[in-house]
């Protein structure tokens, strides 16, 4: 690893650490709605998802064309890779991976992702999803972060409907960012 890559990796780990959720979320800090739909492991945790909306975070400033790729390892573990392009579609890729742990096996809607060997850990809950697995809305249990993902780029009408679903879950959608997505 070159010095500049090592410096970038360290800077990213510090940034993630500052914005990360704790390894275990105390019950009194859970503010997000509970997931209500079970998630089919094979249909959801396989392949690529496109991030089409998110609440702002310093970590994602200037990040566009964000994706999450999942690979099923076992009934309780999935590998994931989060990536984006810095500054534009043709910008430099930033990526980080984790060995995700499904916290609610069988229901499969809650995932803990320890990044950088567990130095930084986030929890993601699938709060809502399409019956055909074409989109999902994800959040952290503390009600601080929110993401909307789709399998393909949505039309403006489809995106507006997803934003309304997030509003119905209690989120302040006026703060959502809509980063450019890859074609």
What this model shows, in words?
The protein is an alpha+beta fold. It contains three helices and eight strands; from the N terminus they run ααββββββββα. Strand 1 and strand 2 form a beta hairpin.
Distance between the termini: 31 Å
Task: Report the CATH superfamily.
Answer: Calycin beta-barrel core domain
Q: Helical content, roughly?
A: 10-25%
Total discrete domains: 1
Radius of gyration: 16 Å
Largest sheet: 8 strands, antiparallel, barrel
CATH architecture grouping: Beta Barrel
Could you tell me the mean pLDDT?
A: 86
- The helix/strand order is HHEEEEEEEEH
Name the descriptors.
single chain; 183 residues; Lipocalin; eight-stranded antiparallel barrel; 8 strands; 19% helix
């Amino acid at each position: 690893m070159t010095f500049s890559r090592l410096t970038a990796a360290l800077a990213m780990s510090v940034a993630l650490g500052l914005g990360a959720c704790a390894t275990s979320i105390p019950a009194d800090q859970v503010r997000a709605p509970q997931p209500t739909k079970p998630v089919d492991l094979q249909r959801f945790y396989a392949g690529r998802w496109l991030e089409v909306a998110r609440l702002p975070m310093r970590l994602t400033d200037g990040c566009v064309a964000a994706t999450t790729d999942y690979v099923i390892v076992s009934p309780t573990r999935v590998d994931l890779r989060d990536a984006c392009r810095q500054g534009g579609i043709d910008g430099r890729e930033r990526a980080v991976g984790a060995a995700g742990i499904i916290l609610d096996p069988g229901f499969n809607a809650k995932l803990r992702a320890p990044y950088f060997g567990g130095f930084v850990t986030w929890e993601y809950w699938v709060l809502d999803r399409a019956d055909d697995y074409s989109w999902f809305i994800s959040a952290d249990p503390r009600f601080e972060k929110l993401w909307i993902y789709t399998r393909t780029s949505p039309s403006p009408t489809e995106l507006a409907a997803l934003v309304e679903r997030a509003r119905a879950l209690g989120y302040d959608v006026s703060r959502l960012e809509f980063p450019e997505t890859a074609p």
